[in-house]
Design brief:
mainly alpha, ABC transporter involved in vitamin B12 uptake, BtuC, globular
Length: about 270
């Protein structure tokens, strides 16, 4: 593995893995404590429509998928905020419609013969230098948001009724968290793919939650775990010639099982 670091594409893959892992740790913690995992899953799968749109229009995948995913996040925020009896229906509908739209748009793209599996399951070695800029910008934005609005995020996550009484705009934070989830999905497309991104968001956070006494600690520990799982997955995928995204998720799942066996609580 050491000798492979001399190649530019391997360096890009390593940096991408680090950046996305840190983002997933912070955003995943907020998604899990706010019980938004299914919502984030709906956004992740529907973002395939954005991939299809980007391919159809001939624009960068990050731009097409990013704008489309944010639009889906805004739509779901409007549809599901305090409408729990309708949430599952709307999420399922948007999930299916987004993926179907992506398939149709790609079908209608003349002469396109790209590897669609790389968007579904990841292709970290295809990360380009320009892609790292999107990832770094999102990581900086997430860290600044957590630093500047930690008290509000804490209140909204654990006691939204109290947060409203304190004048905190809970609906705005609910929408913002879905937008962050959407952008995280987009930057993770080439690392683990749209199908597997929810595992990277939820598994390290679930483990971290067991061993954390605060939301801030959970974010840091979740980021560290996601980073460890990602690096271990990259090494194993290189060593045994496996799909990197799937290997990262399997390593994460193994970590969850091991933690459950050792710490039999919660």
């Amino acid at each position: 593995m050491i000798e492979a670091l001399h190649y530019g594409f391997v360096q890009n893959a390593l940096i991408a893995g680090i950046l996305v892992s840190l983002i997933a740790g912070f955003v995943g913690s907020l998604v899990v404590v706010n019980r938004m995992v299914f919502l984030a899953g709906g956004i992740a799968h529907s973002s395939y429509g954005g991939v299809g749109l980007a391919i159809f229009l001939g624009i960068p995948i990050f731009w097409g998928a990013g704008v489309f995913s944010v639009a889906v996040a805004l739509l779901l925020a409007w549809m599901t905020y305090r409408k729990t009896h309708l949430s599952d229906t709307w999420i399922g509908a948007v999930w299916a419609a987004g993926m179907a739209l992506g398939v149709v748009l790609i079908d209608r793209t003349p002469g396109y013969h790209g590897d669609l599996m790389s968007y579904l399951f990841g292709s970290i070695l295809a990360v380009e230098r320009g892609d790292l800029g999107y990832m770094a910008a999102l990581l900086v934005a997430v860290i600044l948001l957590v630093h500047l609005r930690y008290r509000e995020l804490l209140a909204v996550s654990y006691d939204p009724e109290y947060a409203e009484l304190r004048g905190i705009p809970t609906r705005w934070y609910y929408t913002m968290l879905l937008i962050l989830a959407a952008l995280t999905v987009v930057v993770a497309i080439k690392v683990v793919g749209l199908i597997l991104v929810i595992a990277l968001l939820s598994i390290p956070t679930h483990i971290a939650r067991r061993h954390s006494a605060s939301l801030y600690t959970m974010m840091l520990l979740s980021s560290a775990l996601a980073l460890g799982f990602t690096l271990a997955g990259l090494v194993l995928s290189y060593r045994f010639d496996l799909s990197s995204g799937a290997t990262i998720v399997l390593v994460s799942a193994a970590g969850l099982v091991l933690d459950t066996l050792i710490f039999k609580r919660h």
